[in-house]
Amino acid sequence: MNTGPTRTRSLTTLALSFVALSTLVLAGCSADDTAAEGTVAATQERVECAAQDTAPSEPTDPAASAESRLPYLIEEEKLAHDVYTALGEMWDVRVFSNIAASETTHEGAVAEILPAYDLADPRTDELAVFTDASLQAMYDDLIALGSRSLADAIQVGITIEKTDIADLSATIPGAPADIAALLKRLLTASENHLAAFERQA
């Protein structure tokens, strides 16, 4: 895909847009760092920072940690679905619609395990609406980036999948067997999704 001059112009424009989006900077993330780069890498760092900020403090019981992360993880799957749905409609590229359908399956898989741990499903029925404030901010930020160009939209997919992989990998160790098995399946799927987006980059 030849995106050289177009992508350079897109990233220059994006640098300015991220200054305007400074109100979306999340707790624990440096506004100066984001404004300084204003690139896909800066957005990825911002998403990863948000995930770290919402992670529970170090627990004494690793199993409790895994259980407590499930409501966040199911909304993270919803975020992927909703972003890919929006970008798919925007750019009419099959990779987004295909992976959005997969994310729906992932949400359902996590939803099935919530009752076993007496956890409420935090998802709303509305697209682009999240109960977790950090995920709401990430959604808005990623849509702003992905709307700039198809190349940036593909980078949004890469960012989301890398973040999912990091979050799942951090939650699996010490998790109860049923949660670990589920998260390993989601991890494999995210790795496949990442490869699909990277082939488009």
Give descriptors for this structure:
8 helices; disordered N terminus; mainly alpha; 0% strand; 201 residues; single chain
Describe this structure in words.
- The radius of gyration is 17 Å and the shape is globular.
- The termini are close together.
- α7 packs antiparallel against α8.
- The protein has a single domain, classed as Ferritin, CATH 1.20.1260.
- The model is unreliable at 2-28, 31-36 and 54-59 (pLDDT under 50).
- The chain has 8 helices and no strands.
- The protein has helices at 4-20, 31-37, 40-54, 62-91, 94-113, 133-146, 150-171, 177-200.
- The protein is mainly α.
- The longest helix has 30 residues, at 62-91.
- What is the subunit arrangement here? single chain
Number of alpha- plus pi-helical segments: 8
CATH superfamily: Ferritin, core subunit, four-helix bundle
Largest sheet, in brief, is:
none
CATH architecture: Up-down Bundle
CATH third-tier fold name: Ferritin
- Radius of gyration computed on alpha carbons: 17 Å
Total number of β-strand segments? 0
| Name of the top-level CATH class | Mainly Alpha
Q: Number of domains in the coordinates?
A: 1
**SSE string, helices as H and strands as E:** HHHHHHHH
Beta-strand level of the residues, as a percent range? under 5%
* Overall pLDDT score: 81
| Rough outline | globular
State the end-to-end CA separation. 7 Å
Q: Provide the structure class.
A: mainly alpha
Residues in helix, %: over 70%
Low-confidence stretches: 2-28, 31-36, 54-59
